[in-house]
Amino acid sequence: MIEENAVPTPVDKDVLITDDWRVSGRIYREASIFERELRRIYGRTWVFVAHESEIPVGGDYKTAYIGRQPVIVSRVADTGAINVMFNRCRHRGSAVCQREFGNTSFFRCAYHGWTYGAEGQLVGVPFDDGYPEAFDKSAMGLTHVPRVEVYRGFVFASLDPAIVGLPEYLGNARRYLDFIADVGSGGPELASRAQKVVYRGNWKLQIENTIDPYHFSFTHKSWLDILKDRTGTSSPWVKNVRTNPDWRGMDLGNGHAVHEYGPLERAGENAHAIGIGELIPFNLNVFPSLAFVGAHLRLVVPRAVDETHVYLYPILPRGADAETRNRILRDHEIFYGPSGFGSTDDVEVGFDRVTNGLEASASPNDWALMSRGLHREVVEPGTGIRIGRSSDEVPQRAYLRRWLELMEVEDGC
Ligand code: FES
Ligand SMILES: [Fe+2]
Questions:
Q1: CB of 107 closer than 6 A to ligand 1?
Q2: pTM for the whole thing?
Q3: Is the dihedral of CA 219, 223, 228, 229 positive or negative?
Q4: Mutate which of 97, 111, 127, 142 for ligand 1 pocket (most atoms within 8 A of beta carbon)
Q5: Quick count: other Cβ atoms within 10 Å of Cβ 11?
C-alpha cells in the first residue's frame, strides 16, 4: 500500500501560513478569503492607479480599480491637480465612465443622464422637478477617494483615510522607484497604453510569478530555445540563477520585494540577457499590486477569487529616439504580446495549471511550499532587509508576510 505523505506537523485548518512557510491552498481558492482581502489588503494599502504620463493634459482621465472598486483618475484642466473619484453614479450606482481613457470636460451617466463636471460635481439632473427644492446637488457629486498621493509621477490612492504617507509606505522600495523615475531624459512615459491579460486564477499567483527566477528556464524553455537559435549561444540564465552572487532576491519590508540583476550603481553593465528590453536592471514588487519587470510596468487587478486582469505597460523613456522606442515595443510584443512567448507560458503553466492543481483540496497536503532558501537568507544589519539567492522564495515570503499581518487585523466584519 502506498502511504499518503504526511504533512510535517498537524496544522489547524484555519492556519493559512505555517511557521515553516507552508501556504494553505485556501488563500488562492476561497471566495470568503478573497472578500476579506478586498477589505483588509486593498482597503488598507496605497494602490497604484495611474502614472502621470497617462493623463498628461487637463481633462485627461483614465479608469482604474482599487481592489474591485472602480475609480476615475482625472487631471483638472485649470490646476493640473489629480482627482481620484469612485466611478459610481450618485443616483442608482451605475459606473459613470466606461472608457479606459480619454479627455473630457464632463462625465454623463448613461442610465438616466445625470451629468458630473470634471471634478465630479453634479451639474445636471434631467427632469429635476422630480426632487424637492431642498435637494442639494452640491452634495451629490462623485465621491472622492479619501487619500491620493503622487510619488515621482506614480499616482497612488487609498481607501484608508488614516494610512501613513506614501513615501513612508513605499519605504525601501523608493530607491528602486527613483531609478525608474529617472530613466531616459525625463522619466518613463506610458504613452503606448497597456496590453491586458485576463487569466483564470487568483491575483496572488501573478504577484508570486513576477519575481521568480526559479521558474524561468523551465516555464519559458521554448523562449530560451528560440533565443539560442537566433544568437547561436545558450542563455546564461541558469548559470546566473545558480551561481551569480549579484543576482539576489530581497524582502524590502512592508510587503515590497526586489530581485536585482546586479548593483544599481552598475546598472549599465548588468543587462540580464533574457532577450527582453533591459531598461530596468531589477524586478520590483510594490505591495500589493504594482510591479516592474524588464521594460514594463505591470498592474495586477483582482476581479474575483479566480479571475485576474493584468495590465502590462511598456515603459518608453521620455526623450528616447524613435528607434529605441520602437525596439522596446517590439521586444515587448515578442515576449508578452498575444502571440508572444512569455505571458502565454505563465498563464498556462503558472496560473491555469496551478489553479487546477490547487483544486485538490481534499488532500491532507493542501499546502504550497514557500520555504525555498529560508535556511540561507541573510538579514542586512541596519536595514532589516532580507537577502536571498536568485532562485529563493524571499520575494514571495516578503509579500505573504505583509499579507498575513494585514489579514490578521480585524476589520469589524
Ligand atoms: S444610475 Fe446614473 S443616472 Fe441613474
Ligand atoms: Fe514567467
A1: no
A2: 0.94
A3: positive
A4: 111
A5: 18
pLDDT tens for the chain, 413 residues long, are: 445 555 555 567 789 999 999 999 999 999 999 999 999 999 999 999 999 999 999 999 999 999 999 999 999 988 999 999 999 999 999 999 999 999 999 999 999 999 999 999 999 999 999 999 999 999 999 999 999 999 999 999 999 999 999 999 999 999 999 999 988 778 899 989 999 999 999 999 999 999 999 999 999 999 889 888 988 988 888 899 999 999 999 999 999 999 998 888 776 554 443 344 457 889 999 999 999 998 889 999 999 999 999 999 999 988 888 888 888 898 888 888 888 888 899 999 999 999 999 999 999 999 999 999 999 999 999 999 999 999 999 999 999 999 999 999 988 77
Q: Assign a CATH topology to domain 47-151.
A: Rieske Iron-sulfur Protein (2.102.10)
Q: Where in the chain is CATH 2.102.10.10?
A: 47-151
What are the start and end residues of each CATH 3.90.380.10 domain in the chain? Answer: 190-407
Q: Which three cell numbers stand for residue 231?
A: 544568437
Sign of CA dihedral 137, 64, 16, 255: negative
* CATH homologous superfamily, domain 190-407: Naphthalene 1,2-dioxygenase Alpha Subunit; Chain A, domain 1 (3.90.380.10)
Cβ of 89 less than 6 Å from ligand 1:
yes
Grid cell for residue 348: 498556462
